[in-house]
Amino acid sequence: MTVEQDAVCPLHRPSVPEYVGYAHMDRLHELVQPRTDSPREVVFLLVSHVKELMFRVAYVELDQARTQMRADRIDQACLALDRAAQSLRVLVQTWDLLASMSPDEFLVFRHILGQASGTQSFMYRTLEFSLGNKDPRMVSAAEDQLALYPQLRQELAARTVYDEALGLLSRQGLDIPAPVLHRDSSAQYRPDPAVELAWRAAYEDPARWPGVHRIAEQLMEVAFRFSHWRASHLLVVERMLGDKPGTGGTSGVSWLREINEHRFFPELWSVRTSL
Q1: Whole-prediction pTM value?
Q2: Residue 253: pLDDT band by 50, 70, 90 thresholds?
Q3: What domains are there in the chain, each with its CATH number?
Q4: Binding residues for substrate, per the UniProt record (predicted)?
């Protein structure tokens, strides 16, 4: 066998390392295809991919928390909620990487984005739906995606993380109104004074309601980290673009300021005032 023959013989071809083959790392890196020569565009694409994957990590953990709460397994639910909060911390840190980009560096390739926007991520919408943000405006904006992505459509109809938490509270003996327990889960959640009273009971007597108190604090950590993510998004966009209109048809900073006012699990926030 000649050297040339040996070089192409299947038995002698180098194999893909197990790590690369198992996780398809080569394919992952092939997905980064910048359209300009700017190294900042490469970083932007890489960070965008990281964010997208972390949306899914957070969703997986929240879905697990929801399943565990449905089965009244409080310890396991709290572990899953804690992992979800940890994934949201990683998401917040991705904004630090983008914040290091100066506005002139971003403008080199911003025009390439056209009408593309992170708000068009179906996994991000799936994550928000699972947490309970089913604002009609968001649902309307996702109408085309609902037909494309069955998971998103299923999540719109599914009981939310908060729905399952309130169901758990009721089974633990706290008073949650029937209309709240049996509400239309495809609709936006509306705060209820009785739900705030239930959370207040757990905070005022944690020795009596230790499991509910733990769930409350873990849910609050998730809500806090998500709000931190939104606030960081606002600041980075303002730092890089000022008051320019955003991509994807949004009004930019003013739109981000508006959504920054939204809070998941609203009674867990309002109960802080009444305690």
Answers
A1: 0.90
A2: confident
A3: 38-272 (1.20.58.480)
A4: 110, 247
Binding region: 110, 233, 247
Q: Residues within the annotated binding site for substrate?
A: 110, 247
pLDDT digits (tens, 9 = 90+) for 100-133: 999 999 999 998 888 777 778 999 999 999 999 9
- Known binding residues for heme are 233
Helix 193-204 with 266-274: angle, nearest 10 deg: 60
First-residue to last-residue Cα distance in the chain: 84
pLDDT digits (tens, 9 = 90+) for 197-252: 999 999 999 999 999 999 999 999 999 999 999 999 999 989 988 887 765 555 56
Q: Any idea how long the chain is?
A: 275
Phi, psi (deg, nearest 5) at residue 32:
-85, 100
Distance CA 48, CA 54 (A): 10
